[in-house]
Structure formats: C-alpha cells, structure tokens
Design brief:
The structure holds 3 protein chains of 3 kinds.
Chain A: H1 15-20, E1 35-41, E2 47-53, H2 55-59, E3 63-68, E4 86-87, E5 93-99, H3 102-109, E6 113-118, H4 125-129, E7 142-146, E8 149-153, H5 159-166, E9 177-181, H6 184-189, E10 193-201, E11 214-219, E12 222-226, H7 233-243, E13 250-253, H8 271-281, E14 285-287, H9 291-297, E15 303-312, E16 318-328, H10 337-348, E17 352-360, H11 375-392, H12 397-404, E18 411-412, E19 417-418, H13 424-435, H14 437-442, E20 446-447, E21 450-462, E22 469-475, E23 480-483, H15 493-505, E24 512-515, H16 534-561, E25 568-571, E26 574-577, E27 584-586, H17 587-597, H18 599-602, H19 612-621, E28 625-631, E29 641-653, E30 659-669, H20 676-695, E31 701-702, E32 707-708, H21 713-716, E33 729-732, H22 750-766, E34 774-775, H23 779-786
Chain B: E1 11-13, H1 18-28, E2 32-35, H2 42-47, E3 54-57, E4 67-70, E5 73-77, H3 82-87, H4 89-94, H5 96-102, H6 108-113, H7 116-121, H8 127-130, H9 171-177, E6 181-186, E7 189-194, H10 195-198, E8 217-223, E9 231-237, E10 248-257, E11 260-269, E12 276-277, H11 279-285, H12 292-298, H13 314-328
Parallel strand pairs in B: 1-3, 2-3
Antiparallel strand pairs in B: 4-5, 5-8, 6-7, 6-8, 9-10, 10-11, 11-12
Helix pairs in contact in B: 12-13
Chain C: E1 15-16, E2 43-48, E3 51-56, H1 63-70, E4 89-92, E5 95-98, E6 111-113, H2 127-134, H3 144-157, H4 163-169, H5 180-190
Parallel strand pairs in C: 2-6
Antiparallel strand pairs in C: 2-3, 4-5, 4-6
The chains are: A alpha+beta, B alpha+beta, C alpha+beta.
C-alpha cells in the first residue's frame, strides 16, 4: 500500500528541544514560591516505625513542614505506599520534609529521630519458602485467595522440596498459580529429546536516566502537576483519585520524560507526596529524587528462580514444556511468571504445556513492569535451553526455530487464543539471510584464547489494545490539530500514532500540529504507554477520530453543495464532489461551517461512548473548529503480537571472561512500519537493553543485612557506549496486521527479548553448549567455568553478583 | 536512612602556592580535605559519609601540574590529569605503560579532571564501606564483606587483615611496575617514598591506604630512567568498559636482551589492598624468553598464596591469566 | 583527546565560607583563622556561554547546581549527581566535564559552555545539533545535551573521527534508552562522513 505518511521518516516536534536543552522535564519546571521536599527512607529491611521525633528538624530555620504516612490516606497493604510506618525494605520512604531549600531539607533529615522496631526479613524467595524461613510480612510471604479475596498467606515448602528445586528438579511443591493445556504426559511420551534445566535471572532496577521528580501546586482548588510518566492521559484518573479530587480539578503536565521502561506507566505512589505537601503548605512543592531514591522507589524487574523441562519430537517440533517459576516479588510481591510462560507458548508453540508459579515477597525494593516483564527474562534463559535440545536432535538452531514459529493461525497463551496476525517465519528468513547465518556458523571458531559464539533468539510481547479515544480538530484556518493523550517516553509514538490521522485526512504534515503534554489542552483518553501497545492502539484511535472528522466534513459539504456524503471525497485538504472535484470546500471552510453549525460538528456535542476524560477534552476545545472525536470500536479479535528475532556473533576471551559483540542483527515483526527511525530506536535500544540483561545488569543484596549494593548506576551497570557493538543492524518484515487500519503493531519489548536471547545463545555456543542458565553472565562466571571452578549456578541464589 | 545528594556547607580554600596549601593542610589536618580532580570527593561529601570542615582545592597550584624531565627520568606533578598523562609525549614515548593505564580509568570526563595523585590516593571502593557502614576501615569493629554471606566478588584474594577491600587504582600498579617514587611534602619538609612503600595494607593501617598523613600533600611522582622504554604490558578486566573499576588489572615492565628477559616487574591491582608485586613470577621469568612456553611455565605462580572469599575465586584464575598474557602479547 | 594539555590558570588564593547562611545546622564549623576575613566572596563572575554572569555561589556548590538553579540553564541534566552518567556534561575551556562533580568556584576565569550556548547568535542550530536532529539521535532526550556537548568537544580536536574514535570520546555519556547507534550516526553526519 502506498502511504502519504505511514512508513516515512519525519522529525518529531519534540526532538529539537531535546537537542538544544530547551525540552523541559519535570525537574526543570520552577514556580514562584516553590519549596523543596526530601525523603527520609528506611535504614532497615523490616520493621515498624514506633515514633518519629521531628521536633529539632521542624525547629530549623527554613523548614516548612513534614509529611508522614499518617498524613496520607491509608494505602492498601501489602503494596507500595508513598510513605510508610511499616518498613519492608531498605530505602522505603518514611517521611518527607519540606524546606525553602534542598540543602536545608537534607540538613533537617539528619535531625529526625526514629524509633524503629525491627522485624525478621528475607531477600531470597527460596530462603522464605523453605520451612522455618522468614516472611517479608508478618502475615506471610505470598498472596493467596482466601475468605476475603486475595490476601497475604504463608507458603512453605519442605527442606527437601527446596533442596530438590535448588538442584534442578521439580520440587513437587505447592504453588499459587497453575495452568496447563494439552496432554502433557502424552506429549512428553512422544519426545525423542527431553532437556531439564534450572535457571535464575536477576531482577534489576530500571534506572531511567531522569530521576522521577514531581512538582505540584494548587490554584483555585485545582492541582497543577508536573510529573515524569511514560503516559499522559492514562495518568489523570488515577492521579486525581490519589489526590482525592475530581478529574476536572487536575491539570497533568508532562511534556517530556527521561525514560520509563515500564516503571512509570501510570502514577506511582510517590506522586502523592508533592501533591499533598503542596496542598498542605499552599505553596508549589518539588520533590527531586536522587539516583539512590530512584533505585529505592523506581521499582525493578522481578527476578526468577525456575525449572523447566522441554521435550522435542523426532522431527524437531516442540511437543511439551513443563515450567516452574518462583518470582522474587520484592516488597510488592509482583511477579511475571505467567507472562514468562505465555511467551514460551507463543515463540515455540508447544503442543502441551504446564505452568506452575508463585511470587514470593522479599524485603527488597518494589517490583513492577520492566520492558517485557516476564517474557524477556524468559527468553534469556530459554534460548540456550532450546539450543541444547535442538543440538541434541542434530538440528540447525534456526531451522528448529523456523519449524516451531508462530503464524497467523497460531494459538497462544494459557487460553490458546488467536493472534491478529504473525509472520515469524518471514522474520527468521529475513534475519538469517541478513546475518548470513550459514557462513557465520561454519567459520573457524577458535583463535588463541578467543572463541567465536553464534546465537539466535526470539522475543515476544502482546503489542496492542483497543477501545481508546481519538480527537482530531480542524481549525478554521485549515490547520489540523492532532490531539494526543499518548505520553512522551522517548519512543516518539505520540507522533507516530497521530500520523495515522494525518494519513486518513490526506493532509500535509507541515499543516499539522500535535497537541499534547498538558491535559488542559484537551487530550483524549489513552492507553498507558506500556506493553508495546501504543502503535496498534493509537493508530486505531487516531484513525477513527479522523474518519469522524472526514464524515462530518462530507456531511457539511453535502448539505451545502448538494448530493449525499457518498458523493464526496477528500484530498489536498479539501472535501469535494468525486465526480466534479472543483466543487468542494477547503478544510478551513468546512471547519468554519462546523463552528457555525455547532452541535456534534464543533464538539458542543460528542458521542456517548467516549471516556469522561475525552468528554472533558472536547468541552475544552468545542467551538474552535471541526472536531472529530471517536472511540475505537473497530473489531479486534485475538492478541496483537509483537515479535522479533535477533542474531548475534560474539568473540569471547576465555582468559578474561569478556566478550565483544561483533555483529548484531534484529528483525522486527510488528506489522507495517509506521516510523522507520522510531522503529530503529526501538530495535537498537531494545538491543542494548537485551545486551545489558545478558551481560551486565544486576541486583545485589547482602542477605545478612538486607542491604542493596546496586543503588547507583555504577553498581547497577547499564551498558555503556563501549559495551555494545559499534554498529547495530536491524530490519522489519513490514507486512500489515489486518486488524489495524494502517497495519501497525508494537515492538518495544520484543526488541529486547530477542537481543538477550541471541546473546545468551551465543555465549552458550561459544562455550561448546555450556548452559549458565542465568543472567547476567558476568566475566567471573565464564572464568570459573573455564577453570572448572565449582561455580554453583544450581543453588539458584538470586540478588547476587 | 537519609538519601542525600546536595553538597553540605563547608569552607573552600583555593591556594595558588604549594606552601600555602601545606600550611592549610597542616593547620586543618583531619578537618581538611585535599581536593584534586574531586572525583573521589563529592560522593563522600554529598552522602555526608565524610564531613570535613573545609576543602583545600589544589587545582590553582601550577607547580603541581605537568610532566618534567629530571636528572634520572621524569617527574609528574600530582595534579596532572589522567587525560594529560595519557597524551603526554614524554610519558607515551618512554613510559607508555602509565599512559595505557591512565586511559583505562573510569570515563573521559573523569580522566579530564581526575589527577594522577587522586587516582593513587583514592579510597577503596568496597560497597559496604562506601555505604557509610561502621566497618573496620570506618573505625568500627567488623567487616561486612568477609562474612559467610558477604557480597565480596570484587574483594581481596591476598593479604586481607580484617578489611578485605582492594586497591581500585589503574595507575598504581603501573607506577609500582615502573618503580616510581612519591614526593610527599608537608610544612615540615619533603620525603620521597618508593611507590611500593607508599601503599599500605590493612595490616599496617586499616584506615588509610597510603602512608600520607594529615598535613601532607603528594606533590609529584618520579619515574626513574631504569624502566624507560622497557617492554610493557597493561591490561584491565572490568565488567563494563567504561566507569568500572578493575576486577583485576596488571602492569608489567620487562627488560629484554639477548632474547631473554633480564629483569621484570609484574604488578597486579584489585587483588589486595595495595598493588601486588608478583615476585614469584618475576623470578621465574628472569632469564627466560618472552614466549608462550615461558607463559605456560608460570602455571599458577601469580596466584600462589591466594585466599579467596566466597565470590571472588575467579580472581585467582584471572591474575594467572593476565600474568601469562603479559608474556605472549 | 584533550587539546589543552597545560592550561594556565590565574586563580587568586581566596577563602570562602558558607557559615553565614547556615548557622542553624551547627555541623560545619567556620574557620576562625580565615585569612581574608569573613568577607565571603560568594558573589563571583563566571563566564557561561560567552557571557559574564554575576552569581552568588556557596563555597561547596557544584557547577550543575549553579547552572540549573541560578542561571536557569536546565539543559544540563542531573541524572545521577555522581559522575556516573554524563547527563550534566559541559565544556570548560573546550574540555568535557561533569558539572555535577565540578565546583563552581573552580571555573572562575574559565569558559563554560552548556548545550544552550551552542546555537549561533542568529539562532541557527550548531552543526552537531542539526546532525543529531537529522539522525534523530535522542530517544527520551535526557542524556542528549551531554551527548551533543561531548560531540562538539570531540569534533574540535578531531574533525573526522572514525566511528570507533567517536564512541570512545562519547563513552562517558550513558544513554539508558540505548540510542548509542543513533548518536554515533549523528557524530558521523556532523563530521561530514554521512549524508
């Protein structure tokens, strides 16, 4: 299909500000009379604050006030409260102090006396699951359905079961989540190769580069809130609820966000602090977050301790997968085991599968979504395990993946539901050719202490929702205002998705203006910018809004120039009679008529099925032009999958345990390419994230003291310029998804999953098939393996180096 | 715990004469903080883990900068930045070992301001100690890293004595290999200490990693001509290729003649609290050709006597490998 | 790499004290023997982006703090405040520095350039900025000012770097989004090696 905008590069309007320094992030906003708050955080991994003596601190010149958990609405428990007297991890915020300067606020923190009663704590899920092991909360270590719904409960495994699990066997123990499909035993019975492996993955912090600062102030009963979220409109309703105000009493401003990667999809509890303090003090309050605090409250991926058994039929078909995942849920208990298992069903299409899982609370930082939560850490350990199975069968690893690849008729997940479309085989073929797989695997592998490893890996994440709203406004001057409720998290999807409206309207991009970043500008209800959903979800929403605008213009033209709407077409920013193109109205004229006509044309009236936030938005812009507004009621049947495959060639030095990635090719299967440079960012950035997970990023806790080591970037080790290839390659299948008007699906998360899988696959290949069954694979592990040191990765210890 | 990152109040002195700096250093003693590039300063101060009353900024003292030829070799002002060191023609021409080490430190921006003096006297990086815990080195009476569950992947395999932290410096092993000496001044006068004696382990002084005392300033490093233009080898193995401190590094200077190694100095970093001379290795290679056979002959000599902790056994193999690689590179 | 290996500096010996503002803290004693008396010369001139700015600077104040909070030059970002990310990279006499780990008092008599100082007086983007825009270098943009500034410094000393040289030069600038490839494309374009 030939498009005017879709598939073409453009310069997103926020890019220049990022390059000149003019772009404003939350902390860059200043307000007359603004004061500063700082947090006092927990020194202990478990305990209760019995008393807070802030007398001396409050007596300091320049100190304005204090906010404690007692000043906030009671938070659900267990959870992730903004401030808390119950302490469940080192670094948990206890109180905030506001002062006229940050330095005074910090000085004041040193004068606060806390009386804390300590509690037992635990940082490793298996240390909690084992009989007699400590629980992160007094009531238990897992969430389980009880008399009052989901509640905290204590789940214990026998010492034998834990030992069995640690030694790579099915513990035959109790779980909180279980699902299966197909006849597992029968499927295993058909297999000629069965591989059984334990695995462990680190649950490391997001460490988005912008610490999540908030600034808020109140005027005339309204709260103006500068935040740092991945999403825009998805923030309003929950943030208003958090602050105890109505939707129209909140103006949420978030023009630019310094990364999120899942940790900032919706309002996080910490946002309540500036909101409440600014109301209490009646002054603008900023809470700047330090890097260390970003580690504490910024959440982390959930770690996994697991076991899997995979069976292959003689022809290479994956017949059976039995999977167990114990998630390290941190203080919030959040795990993604079921999503991990779901990813296995998509990428390898096993005939039968069983998943058993439990997410265990530990006294470590809160856990939440992180780029492909569940899926990507699964791919990290899955790829080498599948390689081992394919190798045992004597099958080429790419051919093996091709045989098992999903297509548009595939069924996925626990419920074995349909997909909107899938072209994984095309992606595999494209990548194998671009990477030159055959030549690469046949090259000489050893040169002194150096050895070449070749890897291949896949990524998957559900990549599209539906049912959100779009708004398109045509000004009386003919300018097209594309209202976007999509957040600016760095993917440019806010701009990419409104291109679908521009496409529908067949208008010049130069004549379009994107309206975004401030809810008072009238922004439609939108999905959160998480889960790779935005491209699919909001190209649809923008498309339907544009269709509404087009329909209204045709109605106006038909009323004025005669005929029916069916007699009219659009083009060159005019609506005209198809038979006699000279007869028509410019978009500007149509908009002028719309304003005069009022009603649904000008936004004075709007459809019943749009969200309350969209309705408020339309009210704000009503009468300023022709308003196209609609909810996405297009058909959606099945999961829109984001799929990717990557190939990596590494050169590993067996002396030092270090490796260099010599070549990297990532192939996206995300439907139609909407924005090539944006896609390139998604694929390469995801690639870097995958390389970080494979080799560097870590979560380190001292189990004896419950102390985290990797509070900063240096200890967390996100990859630098010199830890990734000097050049990365990517391409995309570019076949349209039939359930998107422009054919687009998302790719942000699979872009990482395929990369980590390709690198771990290459590491195993370099080491002659040795499986670490662990990420990150760090130099010490390689050295220990080569030296045949007893590196015990079967202990499944988590939160270690 | 408070999570600080704003610089607390303190005074700042910016002397331009070394004498003034020495007077200040002497007067303030422990209450003062010598400021070179500051890259191992601001973290301590922002965290409020260390709370001096005043910083003595040495950057205005021109005599502490630059590389000069002296009668027997060269003298490097302690305030010479790592970038200057890496690019200095004299250093590159005669002592490329030091340039190779300097360019491996941290990141370009840190090398642009970080000084050779600062790189040598920087404190250990044990993460427990840096968190402000009251460990031996901080004046307390326990070590958090050397426990059955301690997270000690980056810690010492040699010569631990209560404290198991290691030297983080990349240039220190190079300077020991080059048999450098350290020029230390105080208001009382000057003393010159061989690099090997400059660094001290916890068995000697658990609070300090060097012999520098309050009131003293490391003003220069002297490199003797003995090792100029020798055969050199430097390698650093770290997790990431930027910012990270060495898991193990090695600096080697060798004199070859008649096809054999006449003399050699092998020095490993990050394996103990001070740069470690690999004396057994040096003895073994003397009189041998620099080749694969000699490398293989070393076996595990470099790691003889190592006592690993729970998570750092890999350093044994790494130091052996790096010693071997110096002979075949 | 560093074109100015031996900078001469003309810094007067002065003593600063921050005691006056913060007597309440009581933690950091003043120096009774202050030679230049209590005359806390906090009001200093610094040259930023070609302009001399008078600004009240605490003795312990970092350059990032002064730039962001006193001169409203918020293009210099604080990602870690620890010298571990590079988002605060500025030029001091054409050399890249972490502004979070530099004392403002140490840059008197020196020329500070922030990302805001790169445009030409007529508002034209600096060629590096234009190249980064053309290549769509940034993702979230938080590290971008630092990347731009580091590239400007690189191209001053090495107008046609190889891709390898470029990544070495930019390696003190972390990009959490992983836009490294795109920034390198920007460097290559800015140096006329990519069209």
């Amino acid at each position: 299909m030939t498009y005017m905008h879709i598939g073409k590069d453009f310069t997103p309007p926020d890019a220049e500000g990022k390059i000149t320094g003019a772009a404003r992030y939350a902390e860059d906003h200043r307000k007359e009379g603004m004061v500063f708050a700082r947090l006092l955080t927990s020194p202990v991994p478990g305990g209760m604050v019995r008393n807070i003596d802030a007398t001396e601190a409050l007596r300091m010149d320049g100190v304005l006030g204090i906010l404690t958990a007692d000043d906030l609405p009671e938070a659900p428990r267990p959870g992730n409260p903004a401030l808390s007297n119950e302490l469940t991890y080192v670094g948990q915020p206890i109180l905030a102090i506001a002062a006229i300067s940050e330095q005074i606020a910090e000085d004041a923190l040193g004068l606060i006396r806390l009386d804390i009663e300590r509690r037992p704590f635990v940082v490793d899920p298996l240390d909690s699951l084992i009989e007699g092991g400590p629980n992160a909360y007094p009531e238990g270590n897992v969430m389980r359905r009880g008399e009052n719904g989901m509640e905290l409960a204590s789940l214990k495994w026998s010492t034998d079961a834990v030992e069995s699990f640690r030694n790579g066997r099915d513990p035959q123990a109790e779980f909180t989540t279980e699902w299966s499909y197909g006849d597992l035993d029968a499927a295993f019975a058909e297999c000629s190769v069965i591989v059984e492996e334990p695995f462990v993955t680190a649950g490391y912090p997001h460490h988005s580069l912008e610490p999540r600062t908030c600034m808020s102030y109140w005027e005339n009963g309204r709260c103006y809130f500068h935040g740092s979220l991945q999403s825009q409109s998805a923030a309003n309703a929950p943030l208003a609820r958090m602050l105890g105000i109505e939707l129209d009493q909140l103006c949420f401003i978030n023009e630019t966000t310094g990364g999120g990667f899942g940790s900032r999809i919706g309002p996080y509890p910490f946002m309540a602090i500036s909101g409440y303090l600014s109301r209490n003090l009646n002054r603008p309050v900023q809470v700047r977050i330090t890097r260390e605090e970003e580690f504490f409250i910024g959440s982390a991926r959930s770690g996994m301790q697991g076991w899997m058994k995979v069976g292959l039929k003689p022809d290479g078909k994956v017949a059976a997968v039995d999977l167990i995942i114990v998630n390290d849920g941190g203080s919030t208990g959040s795990g993604s085991g079921s999503s991990s298992a779901g990813a296995v069903t998509v990428v390898y299409q096993p005939t039968a599968m069983r998943f058993r899982g439990v997410s265990v609370f530990t006294n470590t930082t809160p856990r939440g979504a992180q780029r492909g939560p569940g899926q990507n850490e699964m791919h990290a350990v899955l790829a080498p395990i599948m390689d081992k199975a394919a190798n045992q069968l004597g099958m080429d690893r790419v051919a093996f993946r091709r045989l098992n690849a999903p297509d548009s008729n595939s069924r996925i997940d626990a419920n074995q539901g349909p997909v909107t479309s899938a072209y994984m085989r095309e992606a595999i073929d494209m990548g194998a050719q671009m990477f030159d797989w055959q030549a690469k695997i046949n090259q000489p592998r050893r040169n002194g202490s150096k050895v070449i490893g070749i890897g291949v890996g896949q990524g998957y994440h559900a990549a599209g929702n539906n049912g959100f709203d779009g708004i398109v406004r045509i000004g009386t001057d003919g300018k097209i205002y594309l209202h976007s409720g999509v957040g600016n998290l760095g993917t440019y999807s806010y701009a990419g998705t409104v291109r679908a409206a521009a496409e529908a309207l067949q208008c010049r991009w130069e004549n379009c203006e994107i309206v975004r970043g401030n809810s008072d500008l009238g922004l439609p209800h939108s999905s959160g910018q998480g889960g790779s959903n935005t491209m699919f979800t909001h190209t649809r929403a923008n498309w339907v809004a544009a269709q509404d605008a087009i329909a209204k213009m045709k109605e106006i033209a038909a009323a004025e120039l005669g005929g029916t709407v069916d007699d009219y077409s659009i083009g060159e920013e005019r609506v005209f009679k198809t038979a006699t193109p000279a007869e028509g109205l410019t978009y500007a004229e149509a908009a002028q008529r719309a304003v005069a006509l009022g009603g649904r044309y000008s936004g004075a009236e709007y459809p019943d099925d749009i969200n309350e936030l969209t309705a408020l938005a339309v009210q704000k812009i009503a009468g300023t032009g022709l308003v196209g507004v609609a909810k996405d009621n297009l058909e959606k049947n099945g999961t829109a999958p984001g799929l990717a495959i990557a190939f990596a060639e590494i050169e590993m030095d067996l002396d030092t345990g270090k490796y260099e990635i010599l070549d990297y090719v990532g192939i996206a299967e995300c439907g139609t390419i909407v924005h090539p440079k944006g896609l390139s960012h998604g694929m390469n950035g995801g690639g870097v994230w995958g390389m970080g997970m494979a080799g560097f990023e870590r979560h380190v806790y001292d189990p004896q003291n419950g102390l985290p080591a990797n509070i900063g970037l240096y200890q967390s080790k996100p990859p630098t310029f010199l830890d990734v290839p000097v050049q990365m390659r990517h391409a995309a299948v570019d076949l349209p998804d039939p359930q998107s008007p422009v054919g687009a699906r998302g790719i942000g998360e699979p872009a990482m999953g395929c990369a980590v899988a390709a690198v771990t696959s290459a590491i195993a290949d370099a080491l002659g098939g040795h499986l670490f069954n662990r990420v990150p694979v760090t130099p010490d592990m390689v050295i220990d393996h080569v030296a045949q040191n007893t590196y015990n990765n079967k202990s499944l210890k988590i939160n270690t180096f | 715990m408070p999570s600080h990152d704003v610089m607390p109040n303190m005074e700042l002195y910016q002397p331009v004469q070394v004498e003034d700096a020495l007077a200040l250093a002497g007067r303030l003693a422990e209450r003062g903080w010598l400021l070179g590039g500051g890259q191992d300063t601001y973290g301590w101060l922002k965290d409020r883990t260390k709370s001096p009353e005043a910083m003595i900024d040495l950057n205005g003292i021109e005599s502490l900068r630059g590389v000069r030829e002296i009668a027997d070799g060269i003298e490097i002002g302690a305030l010479t930045t790592l970038t200057e060191l890496a690019n200095n023609p004299l250093v590159r021409e005669r002592y490329s070992l030091l340039a190779d080490a300097a360019v491996k430190v941290a990141s370009p921006q840190i090398r642009n301001v970080g000084t050779v003096g600062g790189n040598l006297v920087q404190d250990v990086r044990c993460w427990y100690y840096r968190r402000g815990l009251s460990c031996y080195r901080a004046g307390g009476n326990l070590c958090y890293a050397d426990t059955p569950q301690g997270m000690n992947r980056e810690h010492a395999i040699f010569n631990a004595s209560r404290c198991v932290a290691v030297t983080p410096s990349d240039t220190a092993p190079a300077l020991v290999a080059l048999d450098a000496s350290m020029v230390i001044r105080s208001s009382e006068g000057e003393r010159v200490v061989p690099a090997e004696e400059f660094f001290v382990g916890p068995n000697v002084d658990i609070r300090n990693t060097t012999v520098l005392r309050p009131g003293e300033i490391l003003t220069a490093v002297r490199l003797p001509a003995t090792w100029a233009n020798a055969t050199f080898y430097f390698e650093k193995v770290a997790d990431r290729n930027v910012w990270d401190f060495a898991l193990v590094n090695i600096a080697v200077a060798m004199r070859e003649s008649g096809g054999v190694i006449q003399d050699a100095r092998f020095v490993a970093g990050a394996v103990q609290c001070t740069p470690r001379r690999l004396v057994d290795v040096e003895n073994a290679v003397r009189g041998q050709p620099r080749n694969e056979a000699t490398a293989q002959m070393l076996g595990t000599l470099a790691s003889q006597g190592a006592q690993p902790l729970n998570h750092n056994g890999f350093k044994i193999h790494l130091v052996d490998s790096l010693a071997r690689r110096a002979l075949i590179a | 790499m560093n074109p100015r290996l031996t900078r001469r500096r003309f810094i007067k010996g002065v003593i600063y004290s921050s005691a006056a503002a913060m007597s309440g803290a009581g933690l950091y004693l003043t120096n009774a023997q202050s030679q230049s008396g209590a005359a806390v010369e906090r009001l200093i001139s610094i040259n930023v982006n070609g302009r001399t700015r008078r600004v009240d600077v605490l003795p312990q104040e970092t350059l990032a703090h002064t730039l962001r909070y006193k001169l409203d030059l918020t293009g210099t970002k604080l990602g870690c405040n620890r010298g571990e990310c590079g988002a605060c990279t500025v030029l001091i006499d054409d050399v890249t520095n972490y502004a979070c780990s530099t004392l403002t008092h140490s840059v008197r008599q020196r020329e500070v350039t922030t990302v805001e100082g790169l445009r030409s007086p007529d508002g034209q983007l600096h060629p590096v900025q234009q190249a980064f825009l053309d290549e769509l270098g940034p993702q979230c943009g938080f590290c971008t000012p630092g990347q731009v500034v580091a590239t400007v410094a690189l191209l001053k000393s090495n107008p046609r770097p190889t891709r390898e040289e470029a990544r070495q030069a930019l390696s003190g600038n972390l990009c959490r989004c992983g836009a490294y490839d795109h920034y390198l494309n920007g460097v290559m374009r800015a140096s006329g090696q990519l069209s």
